[in-house]
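The authors assume throughout that readers already know how a fold can be written as discrete tokens. For illustration, here is how one protein appears when written out as sequence plus structure tokens.
>
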Amino acid sequence: MKRLLSLLLLTLALAAHAQVGEYRSALALGVNGGYALNKVSFNPTIKQDFKGGLTGGVTLRYTCERYFGMVCALQAEANYAQLGWKERIETSSDTYERTINYVQVPLLARLGYGKEDRGVMGYLVLGPQLGFCLSESEQRGGEWSDATLALRPNRVTGQYDKKVEKTFEYGLTGGLGIEVNTRKAGHFMLEGRYYFALSDIFNNGKADPFGRSANGTIIAKVTYLFDVFNRK
């Protein structure tokens, strides 16, 4: 009985290994581009509409294994992104936008399910993201007088003329997408993603005007990759 049980366990282990861990070694390289909608989470709160901007860069993906039909890969990107915020000022004709330009580096785990070589695959990406502020600019409109500034809710005006104080940022990003795979033309992806910053753009000490000032971004993007090599 013990020998039969041991043989059964060994057979199950070998079968599980054959099904769970199917070797892959595929490297793909390409470009991505899309549109980002950003708000900055302030404390005290500042009313905002989404600030739109472009994003794009290069993508590198290494596919390493297939588990229970899930294609596992590591993905890295280097992107340029236009973020910032757009205030919703309801007490006067004043308008205000801040554009903050970043280089962003997401480091992602990727799980896909579907056709690898020819067909459609759905996928999930999730991982940390690093960023560095390159430049910034302010755009103002309306009267912009002491009288209109005094009408701001809770008189929150510490953001104006205040430069980004923390040029390095970090956070978490994740999203869902769909990929169309071809053997000769490459890989075409459409994806929605959200980025949640864990760091602030301004200092947040007791003497500072804001206790929280973090980016939150909704991203829609397309990506094209071609295979550098593909071994199974």
In short: The longest strand covers residues 119-141.
